[in-house]
Amino acid sequence: MSSERFSLTAPVLEIRSLKAGRLKLAMEILAENIDLNEIDTNNLDVIIQNGYEAGEHFAYFLNTIGALIIDRRKSRVIKINRKRLFDPAQFMDHQGLEIEEQDKQSILLEAIDSSDIALESML
Fold first, then answer.
1. Confidence (pLDDT) at 75
2. If both were cysteines, with which of 30, 64, 76, 95 could 114 make a disulfide (CB 3.0 to 4.6 Å apart)?
3. What's the pLDDT at 106?
């Protein structure tokens, strides 16, 4: 029976190994192509200190950015993870920020089509 168990888990281990290798390659490519002047060392320290949570966010980011690159010519839908409440203080890295007013319907929003967004600048 243990040989049956091994034969079932071997493909799973092989897939994990392949994913780990692809992740390592992706990290090397990102490291080669990133502008280090754009990186805040304080944020890197937070990532180092909160590895598990950072890993969850990073996995979500990798899946999202991959989908955006693949679907570049199609609609650019950004999925919103509603598993956690939005914290503006954490998002903006600024203590004291809070949501004063929020449309109750906004919490039902699970995706945004970025092609529907118009960014304008005004004086």
1. 61
2. 76
3. 78
